[in-house]
Amino acid sequence: MAIITFSREMGSGGIPIVHQVAEELGYTLVDGDIIKNAAKDHDLSQEALQQIDEKPPAFVEDLDRQIELGMCRIQLIVLEQALKGDVVIYGRGGQDLLPNISSVLRVRVIAPFEERVERWAQREWIDPELARSLVRKSDQQRAGFIKYYFDRDWNDPIEYDMMINTTRMSERMAVKLIKQAVDSPCLAEKAATCNDKIKDLIIQKKIQIARLDDQRIKDIWFNIEVKDSCVVLSGHVYSEAERAAAIDIAEKVEWVDTVTDNLKVVNY
């Protein structure tokens, strides 16, 4: 059960590499199409997807709660696909959704800015200045998305297992190297231990979704930790009613064995 996550820069040439890797390995490609197809079953409209997918927040409290709710639903779709194994996760902060999952190969595809601009202008048949603006905006938007939701520098190389510069490496060679990395015995050995960890992440995400969607909970400052299907709620709520709602939400989520209440009621 291997999982490959791809981070890419606009115009870097990541798209054909991702598709070729998924095809040659026989893996499921978790991309925009998979998410669109699963959206209805997760209470996500196509309009909502366009507004929130890989976008930074609006910084308007009520609106951001709805954006975060939609984002969590997208993330749940990705996690459910990851649980199946043998998947290629394209974007969506895939590697950040799977922290401490040792069967994940984290790949980033890059190229120099001006070369990406030139490629995008040629691909879309647009003016180079327009392409330059679009590529710069895409970089800023994706970097902002990763920073806000995962508090990580999008460009930090230490966060990736493999960096592929498509100026220096051909598409064919990039695919070959990724396939070799996935076949590593070390990665395969670790894969067997990861299912339970991914299930815990799914439980956590489902509780986050229920919390955001529950009008009984006005603020969302408490923490949710899950290990071996056991949930621990900590932090603070503003009333006994909110505490009861939080516990009720957690207990109703599939796969949850126990819920430990470490919440404190803080009255302001």
What does this structure look like?
- The protein has 268 residues and is α/β, with parallel strands linked by helices.
- It folds into two domains: 3-182, P-loop containing nucleotide triphosphate hydrolases (Rossmann fold, 3-Layer(aba) Sandwich); 195-265, Histidine-containing Protein, Chain: A.
- Helices cover 52% and strands 17% of the residues.
- It has helices at residues 14-25, 32-39, 46-52, 61-84, 94-97, 113-124, 128-150, 171-182, 185-191, 195-213, 240-251, and strands at residues 3-8, 28-30, 87-90, 104-110, 162-165, 223-227, 230-237, 258-265.
- The protein has a five-stranded parallel beta sheet with strand order 2-3-1-4-5, sandwiched between helices.
- The chain is globular.
- The model has no long low-confidence stretch (mean pLDDT 90).
State mean pLDDT (0 to 100 scale): 90
Strand order of the largest sheet: 2-3-1-4-5
Remind me, CATH topology of the largest domain? Rossmann fold
Largest sheet: 5 strands, parallel
Count of discrete domains = 2
Distance between the termini: 49 Å
Percentage beta strand: 15-25%
Secondary structure: number of strands: 8
Query: CATH homologous superfamily of the largest domain, by name?
Result: P-loop containing nucleotide triphosphate hydrolases
Encode the helix/strand succession as letters.
EHEHHHEHEHHEHHHEEHE
What is the helical fraction, as a range of percent? 40-55%
Tell me the overall shape.
globular
Radius of gyration, Cα only, in angstroms?
Answer: 20 Å
What structural class do you assign from the helix and strand content?
alpha/beta
CATH class of the largest domain: Alpha Beta
Low-pLDDT runs of 5+ residues are none
